[in-house]
Design goal:
Helix content is 40%, strand content 11%. The protein is of the alpha/beta class. The radius of gyration is 18 Å and the shape is globular. The model has no long low-confidence stretch (mean pLDDT 94).
């Protein structure tokens, strides 16, 4: 591996670690969807600090790429990425869920700089992404639209209507990313099986890649190859572990830490306490 690539990967790994640290600190203050926030930290690091065109000083810049967090309950990770990127001061995350805070329990475009769409009612993000990508196409612009979905969220039928529409309109400026941590309030395959998931997306006309969602090098290479096919929307099935980085909450949906557990989690993440 050449030195520039190794430097990039190391920097993105550190950003992902910092995202996880801020998520854990938020979970130490109030209940939040910690597991699904930690599982997508590596992908958010690569998106916000490598791939996407965004301007923290001008969140509504016309030339930006659009990011939609369809699984809006995992907004702590997005808030952390936005804070580290400079959309607002990092200390703002310490006001998580406080009255009048810009850091809310679900993604809120009205409150938080850098959040495009208020989400949390699952199954809507991809529909909004399709409309956004189609509008960009009609404007003959070059912006891209990235949508992160939970895997349990794919049980919502509206996602598959959106998937069919995106391929019909040949929206190769639309990228869906499935955070495939295989756990919602229980194992996804026990609650309603999604497999064969890649084949489902292919049957709806999407170009599909399945990757290790914790391997920054693999994430970077995959994002560099977008769109996977001209004239087709792309979907990345990102195989992840719910609660990644904190051993005692893996496969937990929600978590709140007392002081002792918070210190233990931060130590696991390489943070001095």
């Amino acid at each position: 591996m050449d030195k520039d690539r190794q430097k990039l990967i190391s920097e993105l790994e550190e950003k992902a670690r910092k995202i996880r640290v801020l998520v854990v600190k938020m979970a130490g203050m109030s209940d939040c969807h910690t597991g699904g926030s930690l599982s997508m930290a590596d992908m958010l690091s690569a998106l916000y600090f490598y791939t996407m065109k965004v301007d923290p000083q001008n969140p509504l810049w016309d030339g930006r790429d659009y990011f939609i967090l369809s699984k809006g309950h995992t907004v702590p990770a997005l808030d952390a990425a936005l804070a580290i990127k400079g959309f607002f001061p990092e200390e703002a995350v310490t006001t998580h869920l406080e009255l009048d805070s810009i850091i809310s329990g679900h993604a809120c475009a009205k409150a938080t700089p850098g959040i495009e769409v208020s989400t949390g009612s699952l199954g809507h993000g991809l529909s909004i992404g399709v409309g956004t990508a189609l509008g960009i196409r009609m404007d003959k612009a070059s912006n891209r639209v990235f949508v992160i979905l939970g895997d349990g969220e794919l049980q919502e039928g509206s996602n598959w209507e959106s998937a069919m529409s995106a391929s019909h309109h040949k929206l190769d400026n639309l990228i869906a990313i499935v955070d495939r941590n295989r756990y919602q309030t229980g194992p996804t395959e026990a609650m309603m099986s999604l497999e064969p998931l890649a084949d489902k997306w292919k049957s709806f006309g999407w170009a599909v890649k399945t990757i290790n969602g914790h391997d920054i090098g693999q994430i970077v290479d995959t994002l560099d190859s977008l769109p996977f096919e001209k004239g087709r929307p792309s979907v990345i099935i990102s195989e992840t572990i719910k609660g990644k980085g904190v051993s005692f909450i893996m496969n937990h949906h929600m978590a709140r830490f007392n002081e002792e557990r918070l210190k233990e989690a931060l130590r696991e993440l390489g943070e001095e306490v």
